[in-house]
Amino acid sequence: MAEKLNKVKKFVLQKFTIDKLKLNDDKDQLIAAGKGKANEIPVSKITEFKPGKRDVVKMIKSEEDKMIPELIPLRHKRMMKNTFSFFRGTAGVMSYDLLHETKAQIPIMICGDAHVNNFGFFASPERQLLFGLNDFDETRVGNWEVDLKRLLVSAQLAGEINGYDEKDIKDVLNNTVSAYRAGIKYSNGLKLMDRFYLAYNIDDLLDSISDNDKQMEKLLKKIAKKAPKNNSDKVVKKFTSKNDDGKIVFTENPPRARRITDQLYTDFIKAIPQYLRSVSQDVQVLLSNFRVSDIIRYSVGVGSFGTRCYLLLLTGKDGSHLVLQVKEALPSRYNLTRLTRSNAQKQAPEEGKRIITGQRILQTFSDPFLGSMNFDGRSFYVRQYRDMKDSVDVDKLDLDSFNAYTHMCAFVLAVAHFQSPTAPMIYGYIDESKKFDKKFADWASDYSKQVHNDYEAYRKYLEGEN
């Protein structure tokens, strides 16, 4: 047993694959192993805050060296809005810090960037509105507590920006950890197939919230009404215009939206067969009814703003439209903090596959258009753009609704974690741990102070540069 677990541990340092998660041990053996880990590496060890010893300015500059230069000023403007936006844009810094802290050594498929704004609503194939994780650029096999820690720090920072007092925020953090524990225990009690098919639609969420939480109820009902209207037709109406030839094309809006060179356009078209091979055959048949009408570079987000991101306008034989997003799949920030530049580049062809695999495991009923391809010496993943996607605006929540929302995120995160065969070890670990909630909440409070320090250090650097 120990030998098998060590093999899983070593996998974190190797090329991405899910094979190492396929252990032969049964559920009871994995739970027992988790209990053993709790005694060997108690929760007090994995929540022992260790101040990061690094140059945050140098780390951020190193990441931005790989990005599009003209987008960097706008990236800085987005990132420096507040401490939470800065936290969103510096996943690599936290990954580096966590590398130097004690880990529970229970690897599963993780999101890698599970902050409160990386949960949201999306469509199932049956057009139900589901809730769950919705960003997987940093997904990998890693230690489960990484996701929980990132969620908690984001809750701390968002709570501060919303003006909640320190005691209320600490209560939110404790409740969030408690919700994660509840999600792990709930998932552990499910049969494998029930867990595989489990999903949370918006009606489930409405049923679960408190009768007194009128703000959250109002918010969810608003999302339920608005999200179905987020589709390709709306994107075409907002993002396109007719050119001199009467053809519908994307509207250029530099530097965020910019036309691409003829050569890159040609490379895109040549790479599309790769993408088609990565989706199911029914989707291949559907896409055979479409042709590429236009391509534009269009930047999104905070952490990924500055990377290579494109929109593809597809026009069907009936004149209808489908808009796909093609995002650059960089090596996870976790790997970039540990690998040389040459090794990271060698890994690039696998990065798109890593991201879509992580999404398919962690997110129930993923986008049927999810796929990957390589061109221009880089790896990309593909998904439908804005198909019934929506999110909760956390900076507009009152305290009760914010508490309910973070509770919801933590529970759903635990359920996603339990899709990994090694997850019963988490149940065993938590079952043996004392003062679990408080220790994680205290760690998040301590780490958030470091984020504030990093934010100020980078702000002063930008001011000096200007």
Q: What is the structure about, briefly put?
A:
InterPro entries: DUF2252. This protein has helices at 2-11, 27-40, 43-46, 56-64, 72-79, 83-88, 91-99, 145-161, 166-188, 192-197, 202-208, 214-226, 232-239, 262-278, 281-287, 333-336, 341-347, 351-362, 399-417, 424-432, 436-465, and strands at residues 107-110, 119-123, 129-133, 140-143, 240-242, 248-250, 257-259, 290-298, 309-316, 321-328, 371-375, 378-384. It has 466 residues and is of the alpha+beta class.
Please report which band the strand proportion falls in: under 5%, 5-15%, 15-25%, 25-35%, 35-45% or over 45%. Answer: 5-15%
Number of helices: 21
- Structural class assignment: alpha+beta
Compute the separation of the termini in Å: 57 Å
Structure in words:
It is a single chain. By secondary structure, this protein is α+β, with helices and mostly antiparallel strands. The chain has two domains: 301 residues, no CATH class; 154 residues, no CATH class. It has 21 helices and twelve strands. The strands form four sheets. A six-stranded antiparallel β-sheet has the order 7-8-9-10-12-11. The chain has a two-stranded antiparallel sheet with strand order 1-4. Helix 2 packs across helix 20, helix 8 crosses helix 21 and helix 9 crosses helix 21. The chain is globular and about 70 Å long. About 4% of the residues have low confidence.
